[in-house]
Each structure stands twice: as structure tokens, then as C-alpha cells.
Design a protein that fits this description.
Layout lengths: L2 H8 L4 H11 L7 H12 L12 E5 L2 E5 L5 E5 L15 H10 L17 E3 L2 E2 L6 H4 L6 H14 L1
Antiparallel strand pairs: 1-2, 2-3, 4-5
């Protein structure tokens, strides 16, 4: 995530090659070994359930949270704290953003992601961060370090 990794990414001029570099850099999340061991002990004891599923909605009713899939089928029901993480690697907000892109003639790469300036400006007065800035920011764009760097770029350009 440091400059040593970011410089080679920024030297890539092809948006297609940048997309490939972003995909290659994406790894599943990681946790420290001691925490992993503690979690796996909880799973073995039946005190914790670890699932790798896509939750589309959560409904709170009668003191329980029902996790549901895209068909509204209950995946899991729990009454305890729920922690979930992850994201889809597709362009977020594409459904509502597509007409905006067309009406404002905003540039996008073949993959559908915005082509922005170094200051993360996509159009007049329109700046982006997060996933929308990843062709400029690189693989760090979706994390806190990327958000901080994106904010610095935007503020420094104003």
C-alpha cells in the first residue's frame, strides 16, 4: 500500500492493464494468526458459525435478525451481534449512475469505471473516491488508506 507499490501502478498508462493490476492485487481478507485460532476454536465448540454467503437483506423481528439472500430466503437467523464484510468488485451504483454518465458525457474505461484526472475529478465540480477512483488510485482506493490519499488529492487540487 505504500509508495513502492503505488508507483508501478501509476506508471501503467493502459486502463485495461490497470484493471488487470487491480484484480491481481485483490486478496481475500486476512486476520492475525492468534485471532484466527481463537475463532476456529469457537467454531469447533459450536459457539460460532462462519459463513461465506452473499446477504441481500437483514430483517429484525421478535428479537432476531434474519439474514436473507437475493430471493428473500432466510440464510441464517441470529439474535447476537452480526459482523459482515466484503464487497462486490463491480462498479457500485451502476444502475443509477449509467444515465448520469450519458447525460453528462462522463468518460469511462472499457470496464465501465470512471476515467478521472490525477486530482480525481470526473467532470466539472465532480470528484470521486473509493471504487469510482480505482483506475487512478489503484488497489488501495477502496480502503481507508485510499480514502485518505483521495481526500488529500482532492483538497490539494481545490
Amino acid at each position: 500500500m505504500g509508495p513502492k507499490k503505488q508507483r508501478p501502478f501509476r506508471a501503467i498508462s493502459s486502463f485495461q492493464k490497470r484493471r488487470e493490476a487491480i484484480i491481481q492485487a485483490r486478496n481475500k481478507g486476512s486476520i492475525p494468526p492468534d485471532l484466527h485460532k481463537a475463532l476456529m476454536n469457537q467454531v469447533k465448540q459450536g459457539l460460532l458459525s462462519v459463513m461465506d454467503v452473499e446477504v441481500k437483506s437483514a430483517v429484525w423481528k421478535d428479537g432476531h435478525i434474519s439474514l436473507r439472500d437475493k430471493n428473500e430466503k432466510v440464510i441464517q437467523q441470529t439474535g447476537t451481534i452480526l459482523l459482515a464484510t466484503g464487497f462486490n468488485s463491480a462498479m457500485p451504483g451502476k444502475d443509477w449512475l449509467t444515465p448520469v454518465i450519458r447525460s453528462h458525457d462522463l468518460r469511462c474505461a472499457e470496464c465501465g469505471y470512471p476515467i478521472v484526472s490525477q486530482s480525481l475529478q470526473w467532470g466539472p465540480g465532480l470528484y470521486v473516491t473509493g471504487a469510482s477512483a480505482e483506475l487512478e488510485m489503484g488497489p488501495i482506493s477502496r480502503n481507508i488508506s485510499g480514502a485518505r490519499q483521495a481526500a488529500e488529492r482532492i483538497v490539494n487540487s481545490l
